[in-house]
């Protein structure tokens, strides 16, 4: 009986180690994708490099009510402000998404604009570089977590056996659910 349990324990540990190895491969692909996306984001040149004070002429806000998975109702508000601003002594009027901020008529806001196309404006825009650095941080966190997980599973046989057993049980439940 002892050899059967020992064999089952070793088999479960082997499955756990295989699962950890597969997790490293999947994680490496994910991390690589995040790093490539982050690199493109960090290296991209922003088009809206100018900043100017704009005056809100008027605004419109629309509300959308939607139901969450738990049955609660949430409201989303989309506000668009019509603004007036001057660049190089030329006056422009354009619409800009200011959600979720609702500005009153006459309010002064700072907008970014494209020097090549001054009607291409934005308010409160997150730069692609910032997004790139966030993606880089997420990639590092994922890589560290995967490395710790792999090290722990391959170093400690009881954890490897637990991972293997839980994977086997989950697989059996999934197959039983499809059959029955």
Model description:
This protein has helices spanning 2-43, 128-155, 157-179, and strands at 50-67, 73-87, 90-97, 108-114, 117-122. The protein has 180 residues and is of the alpha+beta class. The protein folds into two domains: 2-42 and 130-179, no CATH class; 50-126, OB fold (Dihydrolipoamide Acetyltransferase, E2P), CATH 2.40.50. The longest helix has 42 residues, at 2-43. It starts with a helix and ends with a helix. The mean pLDDT is 88.
Order of helices and strands: HEEEEEHH
The overall strand count is: 5
Count of individual helical segments: 3
Helix and strand composition category: alpha+beta
Number of domains: 2
Question: On the 0-100 scale, what is the average pLDDT?
Answer: 88
The radius of gyration is: 27 Å
Q: Would you kindly provide a brief summary of this structure?
A:
It contains three helices and five strands.
